[in-house]
Amino acid sequence: AETDAEVCLAFPRRYQVNPELKGKDLWEAYGLKRNFKAVGLPCIDLLWLEHWLQRPLFFAFPLLNLSFSLFVLPYALWSNVDVVYSRNFLSLIWLLPVSMISGVRLYYEVHDVPSNRLIHSVKCRLLKLTADVVVITDGLANLFEKAGFERERLLVAPDAVDLDEFHIEIPPDELRRELGLPMNKRIVCYTGNLYPWKGVHTLALCSRY
């Protein structure tokens, strides 16, 4: 969108369980520029039931993911798009034959790979038909290469932030005094979810040293 491309974000239209986000659109919630459009597609949403029961339902997210992906295909065809960029593998699966016929370019962004080698190999074979892959680390790129994916069809693009959003001109020592933080201690700050697979416990273990 920043380069004047016409961009539309398709997302699953579901119940908002976070009270802090209710009534906010995604531009307001994430502090985004309104230089792209967004459309909510239908899905079978049972995540609200998880929230109500206060326990996970093993089928809730897979059902939402599958039902949402089925609506991506007709929307992409109806919108006559040139490029589909997605982290949702199922959405791209339905578009593979369309891409082979019409020339729609597909890009799959990968943050991890299946632990099962067979599943990873099958995914690579399907993606090799017509999709290119964007990975966030060189390690992931190597795993795709080992599975037979051509390096020239891989782009390594690490996660990043807009540094302008975090440009602070106040000196660190002044901020420490203002916030009541020790002047001679190392400070490590993590912002994000506390899911176990995020590895946040590593920070606690490192604090021993």
What does this structure look like?
This protein has 209 residues and is an alpha/beta fold. It has helices at 26-30, 47-53, 60-79, 89-102, 117-128, 138-146, 172-179, 201-206, and strands spanning 8-12, 37-41, 83-86, 105-110, 131-135, 154-156. The strands form 2 sheets. The protein has a 4-stranded parallel beta sheet with strand order 3-4-5-6. A two-stranded parallel ribbon has the order 1-2. It is globular and about 65 Å long. 9% of the residues are buried.
Brief summary:
The chain is α/β, with parallel strands linked by helices and 209 residues long. Helices cover 39% and strands 13% of the residues. The protein has helices at 26-30, 47-53, 60-79, 89-102, 117-128, 138-146, 172-179, 201-206, and strands at 8-12, 37-41, 83-86, 105-110, 131-135, 154-156.
Number of helices: 8
Could you describe the largest sheet, including whether it forms a barrel?
A: 4 strands, parallel
Strand content: 5-15%
Mean pLDDT: 89
Coarse shape: globular
Distance between the termini: 45 Å
What string gives the helices and strands in order? EHEHHEHEHEHEHH
- Give a count of the beta strands, DSSP E runs of length 2 or more: 6
Q: Which stretches of 5+ consecutive residues score pLDDT under 50?
A: none
Q: Nearest-angstrom radius of gyration?
A: 21 Å
**Approximately how much helix is present in the residues?**
25-40%
The assigned structural class equals alpha/beta
Question: What spatial order of strands do you see in the largest sheet?
Answer: 3-4-5-6
